[in-house]
Amino acid sequence: MFTDSVPTLVDPDWLEDRLDVPDVQILDCTVYLQPGGVKSGYDDWSDAHIPGSQFADLIEDLSETDNPEYPFQLPTSDAFASAVSELGVSNDSRIVLYDTVNEGNNNEWAARLWWMFRVFGHDQVGVLNGGWPRWTAENRPVSSSVKTPQSTDFTAEYRPELVANKEDVRSKTEDSGTCVINALKSDDHAAERIPNSVNVPALGDDGVLDTDGTYASDDALEEQFSEVGATEADDVITYCGAGIAASSEALALHQAGITDVAVYDGSLSEWTADSELPVERDE
């Protein structure tokens, strides 16, 4: 039996070799972006998925739902622990997360849940690099069998250093030792951004993903983040529109050796809603 740690970026070979290992838990995290809202990937998962996987509902079960103004906010420790326990995940689980591409956002929803697991104290978690598109393109095993997971008991231990709020960001924007990174595309960064932030897109030709939908090499990521000062910073905070691309950016930074990255969960959705907070725009 394999007892090794889960890589942060999981190669399909690694996962296929462990499909029948009991403590390896696989979760599909797909959310589809649509005009006017979002849609769960549950129906597609139930039709075809990686064998043994369960579906993790980031819309309802794994996000704070009391404030519809800011969707996908981090749930409470208790809510997170309850949701993943119902999926069969325990503190002894080695977790592999994946998602399905939607508008080019490979790995972002999986990376969101990867960040959340780390926030709540669980490091044995990785993202399938390239997700469902790569898995199926390589003719890996696929199943349509849906099984009810056996509930477990996951205990969350909150790590505040991995989460940034509005006040944290406001206090850090004038701090030369902090690198605040916008994960949105360069055009979006030019149009509207938090003052003194830099841009490394999570998506697009100049982003942290290669053209095949996998993350760039560790060396390439380190070079990208070095160019904006992240590798020398005392603190690094990522943001985007609503915290999803920012989570993928945090994973890319982790691969580049910058592991204690805080994600600004409210991101621009919260920042721009406060008329007292400054916003920069290119002329």
UniProtKB/TrEMBL annotation:
Signal peptide: none annotated. GO terms for molecular function: thiosulfate-cyanide sulfurtransferase activity. CDD domains: TST_Repeat_1. It comes from the Archaea. PROSITE patterns: RHODANESE_3. Keywords: Repeat, Transferase. It holds the Pfam family Rhodanese. The keyword Hydrolase does not apply. SMART domains: RHOD. SUPFAM superfamilies: Rhodanese/Cell cycle control phosphatase. Residues 20-144, 168-280 form the Rhodanese domain. This is Rhodanese-related sulfurtransferase. It comes from Haloquadratum walsbyi J07HQW2.
